[in-house]
Amino acid sequence: MQTDTPTVPTFADVAAAADRISSRLVRTPVMSSPALDKRADRRVVFKCENLQHGGAFKYRGALNAILPLALAGNVAAVATHSSGNHGTAVALAAKVCGLDAYVVVPRDSSRPKIANIEQAGAELIFCEPGLAAREAKLADVIARTGAHLVHPFDDARVIAGQGTAALELLTEEPGLDVVCTPVGGGGLIGGTALAAKAMAPQCRVIAAEPQGADDAYRSFRDGKRQSTTSPATIADGLRGSIGVLNFALLRSHVDDVVTVTEKEIVNAMRIVLQDLKLLIEPSSAVAVAALLAGKLGSSGQRVGIIISGGNFDLDQCPFLRGERVT
Amino acid sequence: MQTDTPTVPTFADVAAAADRISSRLVRTPVMSSPALDKRADRRVVFKCENLQHGGAFKYRGALNAILPLALAGNVAAVATHSSGNHGTAVALAAKVCGLDAYVVVPRDSSRPKIANIEQAGAELIFCEPGLAAREAKLADVIARTGAHLVHPFDDARVIAGQGTAALELLTEEPGLDVVCTPVGGGGLIGGTALAAKAMAPQCRVIAAEPQGADDAYRSFRDGKRQSTTSPATIADGLRGSIGVLNFALLRSHVDDVVTVTEKEIVNAMRIVLQDLKLLIEPSSAVAVAALLAGKLGSSGQRVGIIISGGNFDLDQCPFLRGERVT
To answer: How confident is the model at residue B317 (pLDDT cuts 50, 70, 90)?
Structure first.
């Protein structure tokens, strides 16, 4: 499916995105915990995008893509497919910009995520599960409505927008030895790598991925973009495969891709809740799991992790029983 | 047990405390959630003291009491009794100030809280449960060590220090119609009321208390200080009774005391986790429960809540199973 701007973005695009959207974002806090530092045997800071509008970093990329469309004035609506945070972000950004939003949603998406997208103001169009069905339905919607596509990750403006989280983090913490984000489609790690290599050349950029959806890991090692066909991971934001622009950035700007197990992901979620008092979604916990497995830098170093989101159905968590006292 | 400064503090003491300690505090974020605003049918902001050093507002009062002692140079150690956040706060503040700390801890305190106090650097002295046993053991410790008492709440410097959280909140949100904190010993509500009545005279100040430990509620209504003899609440920080100075402030500066049930407390914890992505302790959830029960202001008003702390054993939570995946 074609992207809006099919060229690989640069740091200048990230800086321009920050100028464009910062005043409309939550300046999310950078947090740390002495208890977690002790566990990890290094100094760790967390950029808390779970506290961003829509509960995820996705709002940055969506807004950076949609705001210029609205200002140009020749687009009345935007459309995307999503089972989660990107759909909510597109809906929120469209509303802020005065545009309509259509979001194609697989029927098997979780109810809370569907509710989030709807509450954010989008018109929902349901489709069968699977990428082919999603893209076919989205093409129908675009043909019918004239809406403009906002791709979840394989788009220069989206990638540049996601990079603004790292830009903020590195402005506050310029001396990081390592920065890490999870990798799914690759928008967040791509934008983060652009920011880091420009702002902190000494800083290693590491992508973290679930073993059960390790297409970026395999792609990085083989030098050839691969896909995940049967993702098996609780990290629902990372089940898709890495995009074309994103893979180009992975090769040129990222130092390593590491993987973690499902057990490590769930344990990391619990540890962040205990030590940082923050609920993070499993996709975010993938980066924390890499930290706790000793895969991010070495003892005594300074590590930055971008917490990608906090949208999670408490009832689905292995350690959250979901019992309601009524 | 005698207090350090037995006079009722004023707003000038809160302002002086802010000057003294602010540079050593976490400037905790003020957070909000559109989903929670919708539930509550009003605009609600949360001052997140669960993200303060030691995971609770208690560090403010402890530091404001201990820093002048250290600067005066005639005290080598401080002492207190605590089963929780105050003990950790005293230990941390003493360490920062270069003093030793002795904390008398009831044997039946929760293991994680005991571990917190110890990790913060205090020497622990165990005693039998109950206020009489605590005070007797603390008197022994003070006699033996020459340590200076830092009372958990019935002390003007401690109350003034706690008031700095509301001072920060009202600086950022001057137009609040209501501000609410939980009430146990009364240090937080006392300091908050001093700040609110000086900085935002239009703002109603409301204390929230568990029905199962409602001594402040009864004291406020009867005009005579009463105590809780058999507290029955999950809100472990609110099981004690209101102090002398604190009751004086409750009568002179607080507009109302409201109570909530145990079910309301647990539901409020869960809702904050879902909507704000924040883990708060049951004592903090008491104020949120009052909000959700419609007891803080009216539809459309602006409400500020001070989240007092986030120290809680996940295994003890009715909706956190505590299952570890190893």
So the answer is: low
Closest CA to B192 of B207, B177, B202: B207
Q: Please tell me the pTM assigned to this model.
A: 0.87
Give the strand pairing for A43-48 and A30-31: antiparallel
Cβ pair A289, A235 in contact under 8 A: no
Neighbour tally for A189: CB within 10 Å: 37
Alpha carbon distances (Å) from A257 to A25, A177, A260, A286, A309: 29, 16, 10, 12, 20
A270 and B319 within 8 Å at the Cβ level: the answer is no
- Write out chain B residues lying below 8 Å of A267, CB-based: 324-326
Spatial CB neighbours of A210, under 8 Å, sequence gap ≥ 6: A231, A233, A234, A235, A238, A259, A260, A261, A262, A265, A286
How far is CA B292 from each of CA A9, B46, B126, B138, B310, rounded to the nearest angstrom? 46, 14, 39, 39, 19
* Residues B195/B9, Cβ–Cβ less than 8 Å: no
* Structure tokens, A281: 């979604």
Residues of B in contact with A234 (CB under 8 A): none
| Chain-chain contact of A310 with B267 (C-beta, under 8 angstroms) | no
Domains contained in chain B, CATH given: 11-56+155-316 (3.40.50.1100), 58-149 (3.40.50.1100)
* Strand, helix or coil for residue A74: coil
Residue A77's alpha-carbon distances to A142, A160, A276, in angstroms, are 9, 21, 39
As separate numbers, helices (DSSP H) first and strands (DSSP E) second, chain B gives 12, 10
pLDDT of residue A322: 43
Considering only CA atoms, which of B223, B196, B228, B224 is closest in space to residue B211? B228
User: What is the C-alpha separation between B311 and B115, in angstroms, rounded?
Assistant: 12
d(CA B162, CA B2): 19
Q: Look at the alpha carbons of B142, B145, B149, B152 in this order and tell me if their dihedral is positive or negative.
A: negative
pLDDT at A250: 98
| Closest by Cα among A193, A181, A143, A153 to A284 | A181
Above 60 in pLDDT, residue B42?
yes
Smallest Cβ distance to B270: which of A263, A270, A314? Answer: A314
Give the pair of three-digit tokens for residue A103.
Answer: 């979001």
Q: What is the DSSP string of B187-220?
A: HHHHHHHHHHHHH-TT-EEEEEEEGGG-HHHHHH
Query: Which residues of chain A have a Cβ shorter than 8 Å from any chain B Cβ?
Result: 29, 31, 35, 50-51, 55, 119, 262-263, 266-267, 270, 273-274, 277-280, 310, 314, 318-326
Shortest Cα–Cα distance, A248 to chain B (Å): 34
Share of chain A above pLDDT 70, in %: 95
Q: Which residue does chain B place closest to A307, by CA atoms?
A: B277
Give every residue of chain A whose pLDDT is below 50, as ranges: 2, 322-326
Chain B residues lying within 8 Å of A260, measured CB to CB? none
Strands (DSSP E) along A18-170, which ranges?
A: 30-31, 43-48, 77-81, 100-106, 123-127, 148-149
Task: Give kind and range of the element (H or E) at residue A136.
Answer: helix A131-145
Degrees to nearest 5, angle at CA B218 with B212 and B223 = 160
DSSP B242: -
